[in-house]
Specification:
Pfam families: AKAP28
GO molecular function, one term: protein kinase A regulatory subunit binding
Distance between the termini: 43 Å
Largest sheet: 4 strands, antiparallel
InterPro entries: AKAP, AKAP_28
Structural class: alpha+beta
Number of helices: 2
Strand order of the largest sheet: 1-2-3-4
Organism: Pedionomus torquatus (Plains-wanderer)
Protein name: AKA14 protein
Number of domains: 1
Length: about 130
């Protein structure tokens, strides 16, 4: 059976603000099937002006703090881009895509379900690297 792809209704270009974009990212990641022990925070990084669009870049940083280690040894970042087309009508929904730290693969919310394993893999590889150094 195919995994259900969870998505949200994304805002239109004419209703977009940086703050609303961050709220929408938070709303979207609340649909992800991740264990309750994961904590995250998000931030706006920058605005990018392109010929046919404007892109807004955000980062969501994930970790699993514990009682024994309230400051996690490593974190995993997911980078989001919200793109507003200059050629489509202003009432068109924004385009959204995200990449994981240390990966070039571009994910679109409507195309793939998020996998918690991606976050675990990033953190595990960082811990292995730190132990080798």
């Amino acid at each position: 059976t195919k995994n259900l792809i969870k998505n949200i209704q994304w805002i239109t270009g004419n209703n977009f603000t940086v703050e609303r974009g961050q709220q929408q990212i938070e709303e979207y990641i609340s649909t992800w099937d991740v264990h309750i022990s994961w904590l995250h925070w998000s931030e706006f990084l920058q605005e990018e002006e392109l010929k046919h669009s404007k892109r807004y870049h955000y980062r969501v940083c994930w970790s699993i703090p514990t009682r024994r280690k309230p400051i996690p040894r490593a974190t995993a970042s997911v980078y989001f881009v919200i793109e507003i087309s200059k050629t489509k009508p202003p009432t068109a929904p924004v385009e959204v895509f995200f990449t994981l730290e240390s990966s070039r693969l571009i994910h679109r919310p409507e195309q793939h379900p998020f996998r918690e394993k991606w976050l675990k893999d990033i953190i595990e590889s960082k811990i292995i690297l730190m132990e080798r150094l």
